[in-house]
Amino acid sequence: MDSKQQSAVRDESEEGKKRLLDCCTKDGSTDRHGKPAIKAKTGGWKTGALLLVSEGLAAVAFTGVEVNMVLFSKTVLRQSNAEAANMFSKWMGTLYIFSLLGAFLSDSYFGRYLTCIVFLAVMNVGLVVLSLLTQAFMLEPEGCGKLGELCKPQSQVEVAMFYLSIYLLALGSGSIEPALATLGADQFDEEDPEECRSKTKFFSYFYVALNLGSLVAETLLVYMEDMGRWVLAFWISTACGFVALLSIISGAPRYRHIRPCCNPISRFSQVIIASIRKIKLTVPSHGEGLYEARSRNEKDSTRRISHTDDFKFLDRAAVITPSDMLILPDKSETHNQWRLCTVTQVEEVKCVLRLLPIWFCTILASIVFVQVLSLFVEQGSAMNTSTMISGFHIPPASMTSFDIISTSTFIICYEKIIIPLYVKLTKSKPKLPSELQRIGIGLVISTVAMVIAGLVEQHRLTFANEGGEETSSLSIFWQTPQYVLVGVGEAFIYVAQWEFFASQIPDNLKSMGLGLSMSSSALGSYLCSIILSVVMKITTRHGKPGWIPANLNDGHLDRFFFLSAALTALDLVLFVVCAKRYKSIALEKREIGQEMEATA
């Protein structure tokens, strides 16, 4: 073969390789066989839609149990108000903590898809056990389980089985959320401009699916449960759980996967230990001479992270000592990572540390959203719930539907109506607000919502009935503005928060970032409970009824709402300070050819 023929063969080979590269994703994702994912055959909205359906069905399954758990505990298990509320708060807090467990296993060992399958199966086991137990609980007396109709006392074994079932449900539901959201995001190549925009939309639609599933449960299933038809409602939840599992499995041939790579706890510990061991060493300026791998990790799709100058004490972990030099020239991958870490490994720790102030601000923001299911409902129960339809009354908890509807409607209309209007008013290029800016906007709206809730409560008190009555003649529909504004605030804060954590966390910690984001709701719930306890302890001194007594007409719920507004405004100030100081993660650009070679 002469030189011209050899050159032609090389050109043809290069052209074929280029065509293959154009057909494959550029973010390092693979198909189910571990080969580079081909865009036309994997991922995109076909698999993304399946995952959205799964999320909506899983939301119906879980919310159908969660939304009336306190009522179930009181009527079926014969628990007191305090016992039921205490059990519920612990259960919900545990649920969100499990999101961190699911995220950890997803990033480190199982991968997103297997994590979803395993924990959806666990959730369904919990639902089946709960449904069977409920069927047994409600045998005696006949018709028990309705509001005010208590069932017979249950044995300790039966109560223990009940707790086992609901904690299996919490383990499954909490663990799948970050993995399912991240698996959905993995279906879109962030290196492709069009798919990158779709990836951002996916988080919005994921939250819509979550809310629509909750809406179905809070209307249809809640009605059944209020009528005492717990068994039917729980079996419907179980059926939704199984269909959600089948929906995820059906998309298996087309999913794109990001390989799990490492244990983040070990990697973080290595950086801390290595920096302590070298505490006496001088850190070079601007990161010069620090150790970094020669290329990206070829075992997975993670990219290197550029060095930053903050948290310089951690840079000692990447300082190369004479003893390190004995190994590095020939065996750069076999060094002791408890003595020497790469710059990327150090920067992973820095990324998480930089996220913590933002995360803390989202915990404070959750105080508002916690009150939707507690104090807003209590306020509604002290209002006139009658409607224009004779004999029909609005259940106070059903007003949360305005929150869900406004959240979903706003998310759907955001790009179609609000953004074009924003561009028209500002007369500038369509530069969308960043994730941090949207969180800030959400905090402003949440503050306004709490102020309006306080004003509505003041207005309610002026219509309060005299003579010991615990209600007011003011219509419950006066609550609509506060529910709508809280819903819009949720849409701004939570969706932007998910997008922000997903984009600012290192490649090998994507699920962990979403798990951290979701766990802020649990801590916000605990913080709201602490604030409420402190307020009641202070305001009930000297025999006073306090701000939130059993009869709200004797209290000042409006003051607690104004306090919540003040705390949210303070949180906004702290958030602005933290957001201005925040430094975005700087990831290297992917080398597409290397991605192909690494996964081939």
Automatic annotation (TrEMBL):
Its main location: membrane. Belongs to the major facilitator superfamily. Phosphate:H(+) symporter (TC 2.A.1.9) family. Belongs to the major facilitator superfamily. Proton-dependent oligopeptide transporter (POT/PTR) (TC 2.A.17) family. One of its GO terms (molecular function) is transmembrane transporter activity. The keyword Ribonucleoprotein does not apply. The keyword Zinc-finger does not apply. It is found in: Membrane. It comes from the Eukaryota. Coiled coil: none annotated. This is Protein nrt1 ptr family 7.3. The chain crosses the membrane at residues 49-71, 91-110, 117-139, 159-181, 202-224, 230-249, 355-377, 397-418, 439-456, 476-495, 516-540, 560-579. Keywords: Membrane, Transmembrane, Transmembrane helix. It is a multi-pass membrane protein. SUPFAM superfamilies: MFS general substrate transporter. GO terms for cellular component: membrane. Pfam families: PTR2 (PF00854). InterPro entries: MFS_trans_sf (IPR036259), POT_fam (IPR000109).
